[in-house]
Design brief:
By secondary structure, the protein is mostly beta strands. It has one domain: Neuraminidase. The protein contains 3 helices and 33 strands.
Length: about 625
């Protein structure tokens, strides 16, 4: 019975989603394709084919030559703007197509000694088109500012041994005077049909983030997707103990999920490593997921190992205490229907610099199972009214004035889907609504927090933050020097199904503020997620399978008179970012879709070049 999921779903196991000959985000959607939020949790691949006009010969092309790769890695440009409004920190040069190529999964860090010194990261795409969407490379992009976000340097982290990267996680190391950037890095074939050697690597900058060195591989994967013993590391996160009074001052902590098994998923425990020399060398990675009585579902074997996880995030308190956050998917008692795979947020604590950890503590039970959300055309859970790839994951943060005061934020639907039945999980998500459990109508994903004031031993119940009847997703949080909590997230403009969203900032004691783009730059006031320049739904399914619960009403894309659903974005990342400086300044980053562009891609439905709103790396400061 444990493998029943394989019988009722087509599991996406490949590192690249290739639908109708189109590669969909292989660098970032790639191994999220093996993640708990996708293949492990039964995420499916809709096998619809795009129109024949899409199916060019690009899948037979060779990978770009070494000169082009060098050009990509050497590319540097600059951007500027008013951070009191919002700055597009991706410079949008026409060189190498960066005027339309996406940036997503934006993260940010602030220098503890200089609150105006900022480093951010992104999945930085380099597309090429020959009648069909053709992804060449996705390095990790970096953005560096020395004046509080008014001016930025935009560049790329060099590759070590792969040709794709992403999942950026920047951090400052004050003791060793370096900036670190953690990332995943892997290799794929020219057609993006298979990935291999999924590593976690860390790059160092010794000049404040102007240039980064070739990354050091810390967690080493092995083998292609077809290998039964494949190891692929995913969704790493990095932090540094920058507290001078801590006994572990200067220690960098790194976490990632180790996915075992190519064709057949076996496990994905959280692995952990640390560095005491500014990221030059690292301890041998080891598993830290632990055991708990709630971890009863076991894909293989028995016992209560909590080894089917994702989204490991480390957080260091002011006294050097280390907390680790991850989401586990094995608490069968919380599955509303069998094989639902709702997640639970787990937290462990280390009082000795990561040498040992306390027992895992479940801090929140999530309503994010397969019956709880509708799906997109590429078989990923999504928000009702959109096609964007969705996850409930948030983050963990501590109060700098009290090392035992810990907060976790996340976003889910709050209560179980009342329409869920065991029978609905026997159906594949199908066109045109892709919602076999009727999860969309009536759903409302909100941002929640739980809090511990005794060092993670006990936790409060969930509490809504900035309550709204609109869908909210991708929260990120940090605390200011006085302990004030700040949280930012994406939020729909109106109740679902909505067509646009904005990024919002909530500050404890002050309330919620919408972060608008600078209209003087000819940008939309809202993020146009359903009219996307890239990652648009019509690439992946034919016209008869376009999603019906997505896209502006009466949307036209001449000569297509009824184009609702055609251009809905299926991937704009899995998270946003926020970091508070030592002066209390709040630095917020997110993926915006507010700049209209025309791409070089031929749209076979219109016979013209495809247009829509680009995915830009946005920054705002309060």
């Amino acid at each position: 019975m444990k493998n029943r999921r394989s019988a009722w779903l087509v599991v996406l196991l490949g590192g690249t989603m290739l639908i109708g000959g189109l590669a969909a985000s292989p660098s970032v959607a790639g191994k999220k394709g093996r993640s708990i939020t996708s293949s492990r949790r039964l995420t499916v691949l809709s096998e619809g084919r795009a129109p024949a006009a899409h199916l060019g010969s690009s899948t037979a092309e060779a990978l770009p030559d070494a000169d082009l790769l060098e050009d990509i890695q050497r590319l540097r440009c600059r951007s500027e703007g008013n951070p009191r409004l919002a700055v597009d920190i991706s410079c949008n040069t026409k060189r190498l197509g960066q005027d339309f190529n996406p940036d997503n999964e934006i993260s940010v860090a602030v220098d503890p000694e200089d609150p105006d010194h900022l480093v951010a990261g992104s999945n930085d795409y380099f597309y090429r088109f020959r009648g069909v969407d053709r992804l060449v490379y996705v390095p990790t992009g970096f953005f560096t500012s020395f004046d509080g976000g008014h001016h930025w340097i935009d560049g790329q982290i060099p590759f070590n041994s792969g040709n794709n990267a992403g999942d950026p996680s920047p951090a400052f190391d004050v003791k060793h005077d370096v900036v670190l950037m953690a990332e995943i890095e892997f290799t794929s074939d020219a057609a993006r049909t298979e990935t291999r050697n999924g590593n976690v690597a860390v790059s160092r900058s010794t000049d404040g983030g102007r240039h980064f060195k070739t990354p050091v591989i810390v967690m080493r994967g092995r083998g292609p997707d077809s290998a039964e013993d494949q190891v692929f590391f995913d969704k790493e996160y990095l932090t540094v103990d920058n507290h001078p009074d801590s006994p572990y001052y200067g220690r960098a902590y790194l976490m990632g999920a180790r996915f075992l098994g190519g064709p057949v998923y076996q496990e994905s425990p959280i692995y952990f490593s640390y560095s005491d020399d500014g990221g030059r060398t690292w301890s041998s990675p080891r598993e830290i997921s632990g055991r708990h009585p709630s971890c009863t579902y076991q894909e293989f074997g028995g016992g209560t190992d909590c080894d089917e996880d994702q989204f490991g995030i480390p957080e260091v308190a002011a006294d050097g205490t280390l907390y680790v956050h991850y989401i586990n998917y094995q608490n069968e008692a919380e599955f509303e229907v069998p094989f639902d795979f709702d997640g639970q947020v787990m937290v462990r604590r280390s009082d000795n610099g990561g040498e040992s950890f306390t027992r895992p503590v479940p801090v929140a039970q999530l309503e994010d199972g397969f019956s709880d959300m509708p799906f997109s055309v590429i078989g990923r859970q999504t928000v009702w009214g959109h096609q964007l790839r969705w996850t409930s994951a948030g983050t963990i943060t501590t109060d700098p004035t009290d090392p035992e005061d810990v907060t976790v934020v996340f976003a889910d639907r709050g209560s179980a889907n009342p329409n869920a039945t065991e029978e609905c999980l026997a159906e594949l998500p199908a066109a045109p609504d892709y919602d076999p459990c009727n999860a969309g109508p009536g759903s409302d994903t909100d941002v929640y927090m739980v809090r511990s004031t005794d060092g993670g031993e006990s936790w409060s119940g969930r509490r809504s933050i900035g309550g709204s009847s609109s869908h909210q997703w991708f929260p990120w949080a940090d605390r200011g020097p006085d302990g004030e909590l700040a949280v930012a997230w994406d939020e729909d403009n109106g109740s679902g199904p909505a067509d646009t969203f904005n990024h919002v900032l909530w500050v404890q004691g002050e309330g919620k503020e919408t972060l608008y783009p600078d209209a003087r730059e000819d940008r939309s006031r809202s993020e146009q997620i359903d009219i996307s320049a890239t990652h648009w739904a019509g690439q992946y399914v034919p016209e008869e399978d376009w999603p019906v619960i997505c896209g502006p009403e009466d949307y036209r894309d001449p000569p297509v008179s009824d184009a609702e659903g055609k251009d809905c974005n299926v991937f704009h990342g899995d998270y946003t970012g926020l970091a508070v400086g030592s002066d209390g300044s709040i630095n917020v980053v997110w993926t915006g879709l507010n700049r209209f562009v025309v791409t070089p891609q031929l749209d076979p439905y219109t016979g013209k070049l495809h247009d829509g709103y680009a995915q830009d790396a946005m920054f705002s400061r309060r």
